[in-house]
Amino acid sequence: MLTGNIKPSSFDKENYKGEIIESIKNPTDTYLVQGAKKSISKWMDSQSSGYVYKEQLNIGHATWALIFKDATATTPVYQLKYKVLFYKKPEGGNMFSAYTVAECSPIPVEANLSEWERDNYKKVTIETQKYMDACIMELNNQLPRLLKK
After folding, report:
1. Cβ contacts of residue 146 below 8 Å, gap of 6+?
2. Sequence-ordered strand ranges (E) for 99-138
3. Is the residue at 81 inside a domain?
4. Regarding beta strands 100-104 and 63-68, do their DSSP bridges make them parallel or antiparallel, or are they unpaired?
5. How far apart are alpha carbons 30 and 48 in whole angstroms?
6. How far apart, in whole angstroms, are the C-alpha atoms of residue 135 and residue 123?
7. Cβ-count burial of 142 within 10 angstroms (0-12 exposed, 13-18 middle, 19+ buried)?
8. How far is residue 85 from each of residues 6, 63, 72, 90, 134, measured CA to CA in Å?
9. CA dist., res. 147 & res. 55, Å (int)
């Protein structure tokens, strides 16, 4: 006999750890970081007037995953989700200063698993590049706020 409090499962699909796909790696460290560096350099050349920033602009760890939308469906649909943070301490701030943060999380693309898996996950690669391009554009829009002197 069981006694005590029994609660329904609080399963959270966003944090469910599935299988790692060894054949493809998260391209954030290469593609997004390189694109962000180019954008930041271009902005600095035109907007910083030679100002040397004391605080570093950081790119946070990107989350990137195929997550099922409804596991009970006959043919489950999966969403490709991507999220990255850009953050920086304010210039002249102290150790208690809050970071200025910009988050990029494009609207997830949905497809069934066989579409995602086809041609060695080609759709994942294509959609991820679109997400990262959108995030670089979002970074460009947020640079005046992130790099406020």
Report:
1. 57, 86, 87, 88, 100, 102, 139
2. 100-104, 109-112
3. yes
4. unpaired
5. 25
6. 18
7. middle
8. 38, 10, 32, 16, 13
9. 9
In a domain, 32, yes or no: no
How many angstroms from the chain centroid is the CA of residue 50? Answer: 30
CB distance 69 to 108 below 8 Å = no
Q: Is residue 5 part of a domain?
A: no
Task: Work out how many domains the chain is built from and give that number.
Answer: 1
Instruction: Tell whether 109 is covered by a domain.
Output: yes
Which structural domain, as residue segments, surrounds residue 147? 53-149
pLDDT tens for the chain, 149 residues long, are 444 444 444 445 555 555 677 778 889 989 999 999 999 999 999 998 889 999 999 999 899 999 988 878 888 899 999 999 999 999 998 989 999 999 999 999 999 999 999 999 999 999 999 999 999 999 999 999 999 98
**Distance from C-alpha of 121 to C-alpha of 11, rounded to nearest angstrom:** 27
Dmax over CA atoms of the chain, in Å, equals 74
pLDDT at site 117: 93
